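dumping this here before i forget
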Amino acid sequence: MDEKDKTPEEKALERRLAGHLPTVDIDGQLFYVDLFMGYLRPKDIFSTLGIEFKKIQDDYSILEENFVFTYNPKTYEAETFDFNDIQSIPEHILLVELPAKPKLDPVSYARMCGYDVESFVRTRGIQSHFKINTVPLKKRLLEIQAQQTKKIIRISSKIEPAGKKERKRPKSLNTNF
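structure:
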């Protein structure tokens, strides 16, 4: 088959089978998806291993089939953030939405699970590069707070204020003798 006649998926599969790891772009930083090592490894940054999948495992949503975690672009790592004890929200922390492992690298995932690579890729699809959605954490928390405030206002406006009710007096007994 001629190179120009191949679909993007066929090209991506060929590149992956030739040893090229898929990449993700998180806030302008390129990461290699390395499922065998268990990391998203930042390209050309050797001071860190990157984002470890074990650290973000608790942030996986089975329903959404993705990871949603906090990321520090200064350290190129996932940042643990205690939402119950917020004193201040760091400006540089981002909220990241990352696809599930089978979507990020179906070839490695199939190999690790013992599946037939080609049939797994046919059913799941394959991409060589992902642009990851990020949102500043502070902005997202403020949006959530605003939504909760609106709900409280709507609920409180539906509740009628407790007014004074007239007290019904029992009919007096006829005491005229």
